[in-house]
Amino acid sequence: MRVLMMTTPMPTHLPPMVPLAWALRAAGHEVLVAGQPDVQDMAHAAGLDSVCVGGWFHHNDWLEPYLPPGVRPLQALGRDNRMALAGNAKAVAVHARYLIPAYLEVARDWRPDLVVGEQLDFAAPVVAGVLGVPSVRHRWGVDPLSGPARPIAEVFLDGLCRRLGLDGLPEPTLVLDPCPPVLQVPDAAPGTPIRFVPFNGRGTRPEWVRRRRAARRVCVTFGQQTLLLNGMPLLRHVLAAFDGLPDTEAVVTVDPSLQPRLGDLPDAVRVVDPTPLSLFLDTCDAIVHHGGCGTAMTATAAGLPQLVLPQIMDQFAAGDAVAAVGAGIGIERAADQDDPRRVREALGALLAEDGYRAAAAELAAVVRRMPSPARVAADLEQLVAGSAGSAGSAGSAGAAGSVGIGESERTEESGCVS
After folding, report:
1. Cβ(287)–Cβ(281) under 8 Å?
2. pLDDT of 30-73, one tens digit each?
3. 5 Cβ contact partners less than 8 Å away, ≥ 6 residues apart
4. Burial of 341 (0-12, 13-18, 19+ CB in 10 A)
5. In what order do the strands lie in the sheet with 286-289?
6. What is the value of pTM for the model shown?
7. DSSP assignment of 28-53, as one string?
8. How far, in Å, CA of 86 to CA of 66, rounded?
């Protein structure tokens, strides 16, 4: 069968679906990732074929107007950032409305038997509904977003859906959920479990992994977006917390372009270029991060105690969930996040108290017991086989690359379907 995978134009929204794509390919099926230029490198890093649709999205543009110079999202919006959630939901819904015609052109040409979209991609169920094939929504992890976002999307997409012959925004045929149930938000719609398998991009296991500077190692990672959205002062405060933390080394991942802004650091801090977390978390005793779903789920699968310093939207839910089961600590007040003594105290507790390690290990065991992507892929075969609306034809899958469509319609900026 042919599977079309669709994603909003944020590179971090594709990785949770990559293991399922691998499983489908291993089972002999074709997988094509459809997305804007922003996600093409991530698709190719995963070894997946892609088709490029539309121009660059520049996903930070919707948030930066809310941020005064030097102010990060938590400081500007606080935890109760309903304005940011509503703005994000409107952005992805309106964005889907204008891209659906281009996605339909791709889908009608490629004829998928199944459409898989990530949790905020509302174009995927519309494309599947028009084609008459099943659709799957694939969550990233802890999901406080898609429930509140759907009613907004229903409003913004209703007119287009009806012009396309649908009764409104279709519900997905199936929801896949990689989040351990104990961590999922209570009001999330029920989902079918799928084991989280970390994919954090491609890389080579570095030599420093085997060379500890202290008995204990803590990973510190805030991702690219958090740092670009005025997060460098926060990172400096967190790294200052390692000064005086006994026999502990910090490994902090920072893009080379941002490293000169770190300033003087404690001797216990090792700064490294961005490296897939799955390549070295097995050598760590704890992790400090911003609560991004990919990072939180990777740390959960690795069985690490987590110190979560959330900045916006779903990051608070991830921190709450980990703390509620005793597998970590969340610090939500910006003033506390910026206080090295407060951070040092939390790190000391994570590293010294057995309860955090035990709870984190139990979470990792829960992840391992969830159905593998290979098993879910087999279930999707049955879903498609039982669907009367299944259409399309199987073919051979090639090496990773971009599928060209409508060469005359390509734009100079993106090299994508316009």
Report:
1. yes
2. 999 999 999 999 999 999 999 999 999 887 777 777 788 999 98
3. 14, 17, 21, 31, 32, 33, 34, 48, 115, 116, 117
4. exposed
5. 269-272, 248-253, 216-221, 286-289, 306-308, 328-330
6. 0.90
7. T-EEEEEE-HHHHHHHHHTT-EEEEB
8. 13
